[in-house]
Fold these 3 entries.
Entry 1:
Amino acid sequence: MDKIEMIAKAEQLVAKIDDLPTIPAVATQVLHLLDQPDVQVEQVADLMLSDQVMTARVMKMINSPVYKPSHQISSLKRALVYLGLRHIREVALTTSFISAFDETSGTFEIGTFWEHSFGVGMVSKIIAEKIGYLDLERAYIAGVIHDIGEVFLSNYLRDEFQQVLDSIKDKPIKLVEAEALQLGTTHCEIGLCMARKWNFPEVYCEVIAYHHSPAEATIDPVLCAIVNLADLFYSVRELNYGGWVSFNLVEEPSWKILKSMSPSLGQLDVERFCYELDDAIPDVKTLVRSIFNSQE
Ligand SMILES: [Fe+2]
Ligand SMILES: [Fe+2]
């Protein structure tokens, strides 16, 4: 099906929803503040402290095994100093995503969705490091947000989405293909419309739209390829929320894109690499649990 038609269909679906979650205003302000030259950690801390939910989540996140502080960090300012300005952006964005979606209940269990998203974020970062992609934080964020369109389907198109999931159960059909066939659009185009509504930077919009077809990307195909591969690796090793995953690495367009950027990737010991990823999985589970517990 034509991408333009699928985007048009996604636009219709997204436009129909009046209560589409919003990204907290503080998160957008933090992102803008961090883009200013000479920004001070104190300024960011003051701004973040005005949002208690965000503060609580940042504290939980920073004390989780993912960031591995040597001792418990108890003040936001210290947490931000420990994170460094670059990582504050990553934490602000991811915590806001969770705020935007955690109240809702949909077809699939939201914890599973976040485990998948953070897992793909972490694996994206690992792959980015391996191939010498310069902005590791960007790779992480791109991985975390790649499937936001699925939350929309799960929350707002419950029955139709359940039918899609049922139809592919135990069958060798990819979720994204079943969506296209049955809904006339997929989580990629829907995610794109949401990301545009939220004024996301174009580079992230592109990852959301093309993470299943990285060869079609034009702004940053390498980033799309990183997330695509992370998604495949993570889904095949551990969990996703439905659909069949099987792939032959050497035939994947994303592998070709990444190899052209980093020829040494050809020597990668894939099996060993998968073990490395397995090691990251318990950390992801702990992270997601710790973030969600911050509400209780
Ligand atoms: Fe996806
Ligand atoms: Fe995914």
Note: The mean pLDDT is 82.
Entry 2:
Amino acid sequence: MHEMSLTESVIGIIEDEARRQNFLRVRAVVLEIGALACAEPEAMRFCFDVVSRGTPAEGARLDIVRVAGAGWCFDCEREVALAERFAPCPDCGRSRVRMTGGDEMRVLEMEVE
Ligand SMILES: [Zn+2]
């Protein structure tokens, strides 16, 4: 499952931070996931529960912020909204669109104790 490896990298980031900042437990994590990152929030939640066991993130609340996809259309010469990774331009219908945003995933905030 794709979400499982994404979640593992998130837990890895949290464990690194825990070592660096010397905290023992994370109460909440705010995760930013792009709409084109191929990560289902529900699957992320499930994986987070499983992968966080025995780590400082165990039992933490997971808040997911979705970011819309965006691309650059070479025919319209402007930024357009992208619903899917390889979707055509919503304005001109052509496929000369390069994805410019919406496939990222990062930890925005952590509430620690
Ligand atoms: Zn276009």
Note: The chain has a mean pLDDT of 94.
Entry 3:
Amino acid sequence: MAELAPAEGPILDEILDATYEIWHEGLGRQAYTRYYAGQLGTPWGRAQLSRFALVDRGEVRASVKLYMFDATLDGRSLRVAGIGAVFTQPNLRRRGAAADVIARVLERASAEGAGLALLFSEIGPDYYARLGFAPIPTTDVQLRVVESDRHGAPATWVRFGDDRDIPALVAIGQARAAPFRFHLDRDRDLIHYAIAKKRLRAGLGRPGVRALQFFVAEEGGSAVAYVVVSVDRSGQAVTWTIEECGDRDPTGARAGAILQVLIARDSAEHRPVIRGWLPAGFRPPQIVITSEQHSAEVMMVKPLTKQGETALTLCAEDVLYWRGDAF
Ligand SMILES: CC(C)(COP(=O)(O)OP(=O)(O)OC[C@H]1O[C@@H](n2cnc3c(N)ncnc32)[C@H](O)[C@@H]1OP(=O)(O)O)[C@@H](O)C(=O)NCCC(=O)NCCS
């Protein structure tokens, strides 16, 4: 009979070998191992990220990652079990292994107090709907940053962000998230993890292909707005993904100004494609949304307790979720 085992040592190597082709994100095989190890090496990763395998007579059948988040749903705290990297060995598919490993990991997460399961499906909603998950539509926006005729940077004091800024980012995020029915409780460790993860991916890749831009606008010695942008030069066009951003100013005008500063650093001919998930109502005046479409990765939830059940009534505008927190 198959057993649930922590994915460590040779089991982890086997999983990384098998999943590399799907989830390498442009990294080499060694770097793919280091990328996961680096995430586990952060304070948040150590405490909240794990991976499990369904093992039968020494053979790995299926595996998943489990992310344990603190979140708020309808004004009350709850633990959320994030399920990622669901994988079954190709020769063992269609025998219920993925369904089995998900069920067992959720049982475990429930025992640890999780009230809701959350995932981002890369294979559409149907498979997970059969396992009791319901979609919450999310929107990918593509946007343009409005530039002045002089193509100059606006007069905003912008500098590189660093770990010292994280407490200010926590406060900015809490104020922005408060009106939403569902959001992660993004504390210092989670924000650090989210930024470190993107930094690792950029740093472990081929030189010049990816970069992470973390910039803040400062007032009175502390960050009052910030943006975290992943830059990807692997395709024909340069792509920017807004992983997260924030602004003490409700209009988002300073976060927009930071984007203008970043844009103005490159020559006008090389404007990137800019994408992200922006919370409802957050539209800095310096940006223009050029297109919106349903996200390719479908956000889905499954209540694990009575408290989690209200998640089934969430609409897109009820949820604040940054692209950089998707897993
Ligand atoms: C998706 C995956 C995990 C399913 O594993 P599995 O152990 O075969 O799953 P189960 O046995 O529990 O369920 C099999 C069912 O899933 C369905 N399924 C598999 N891939 C699917 C897809 N891309 N879209 C919709 N349904 C899918 C199968 O058709 C099968 O249904 P059927 O038996 O009625 O035909 C496996 O195909 C896999 O590892 N794929 C590659 C990694 C991946 O895409 N993971 C999902 C990331 S969100």
Note: The mean pLDDT is 95.
